[in-house]
Each structure stands twice: as structure tokens, then as C-alpha cells.
Design brief:
Length: 194
Amino acid sequence: MALNVKQEKRLLSSALFAGCDTQSYRPLVQTLSPISILKGQRIGSPPHHASALGFLLDGCLDLCNLNGVLFYTLEAGDFFEIEPMFSQIQTILPWHLRARTNTVVTFLDKNIMLSQFEEDPAFARNYIHIRADYTQNLTRQLDHFTAASPGVALALYLLGNHTQHILKLPDGLAGLARRLNISRATLYRALADL
């Protein structure tokens, strides 16, 4: 089964294809298959996907460690399996993805990615940008998890995620609490303290 029109459009409008001639990528995208994941179902880092870039077509996935601690939440349009695709090092920190909602993903095989790097420099640059953003996101998460208190974690999040002194919370305060890995009550207290 191939991606539907909406899924194809979401993938081709992603950061990976920015500045690329998306018409030339249509035949490639039409070979990809959507994979449905039910709410609550876990996805590990299985070996058969270790050499592929994952893309979230629809829904939400929580990236957690094996103890269930939430690192961050992926939303439609986000990539995953970024770090192991070209790494020579075995993953040090085991994790899993858990579907927060019914979710649909697809995977771009490593060999496909390599051939596109050679054919389209914009595609290769876009992947480098995605990889750099992913590394920055992990660094922010380390800051949050090592923060002295929920108030400090909140302050770091607010400082690092605003645009022109405006912070948009697409999933509300409940979503912000999930991102900071604290309860809503703790978030409200931290907001009051600030």
C-alpha cells in the first residue's frame, strides 16, 4: 500500500525536501509504505529499521527510555531514527517510541538516502540540518533533565523556545508539562514562582 495524497504532501513539504524539486521525488515517495501504530503500542529500535530514517506522517510518538521516562514527543512531520542510520557506534542509551495516539509512520531506507545525497546536494544539506537540529534538541533535553528544579527546567524551556518573545504552546500547558516531564500541578507552581 502506498502513501495517500495527504501523507505524500506532508513528507514532500518536510525539511528534508526544502529547496528540492519535489516533482522529481514523487516516484521515490510513491514507493514508500505507511505503517500504522495503535495508541499505546511501542516501537523499539529494531534492527530492520536501524538503517532507515523514520518519518511521522500522522499522530504523536513519545520517545522514552526503557523505564518509561519521557525524553520528548514527536509530532506529525518529525523525523526519528536519525542518529543510528549512519553511526558506527552501537546505541548507548536504549529507548523506545510509544504511540500517544493512533499513528502512521514511514521509513526512507539508508541506500535510498545515500543515492539521493549524491544526486541532490540540497537533499544532503537538508539532512545535515535535520541531524544538527536533532543534536540541539538532545542537548536541550539534557539541560532539562539536569536542571536543579522544575522552575529552572521551565525557565530553560521558555528561554530556548521563543520566537520574537512569543512562545506558542500548540498542545497547551498539559503538553508543556509532558515536554518537561513534570506534572501539571508542578508546572503551575513553577509558573507561579516565575
